[in-house]
Design goal:
98 residues; mainly alpha; 0% strand; elongated; Fmc1
């Protein structure tokens, strides 16, 4: 695989992973560019860069699947218990505040 292709894939994954959409941290993109330029001299660096891209893609897909199949993951313990009870048709009793 060409270093240019791996660099472009890395930039695509960084764009998809960035919190403000499509806003890449300049330090990250410059580090990936430097690695891509070094990979012309060594195939090991190119393989590592390709592995990094595969890891970023897998993490993004994992987060997507986790959110899809486990929607209670980001709730607190109390909210999770209430949602589980509601799922089977029960309502949680209201606890008095002290």
């Amino acid at each position: 695989m060409l270093s240019r292709n791996v660099y472009r894939e890395a930039l695509r994954e960084l764009k998809k992973a960035s919190l403000p959409p499509h806003k890449i941290n300049p330090a990250l993109s410059s580090n990936f560019r430097a690695l891509a330029e070094k990979s012309r001299q060594s195939n090991a660096i190119l393989e590592d860069l390709g592995s990094g891209v595969a890891f970023m893609r897998a993490q993004r897909e994992y987060q997507s699947l986790l959110a899809r199949y486990n929607p209670l993951i980001d709730l607190t313990a109390e909210e999770r218990i209430e949602a589980t009870a509601h799922r089977v048709g029960l309502n949680m009793p209201k606890t008095p505040e002290l």
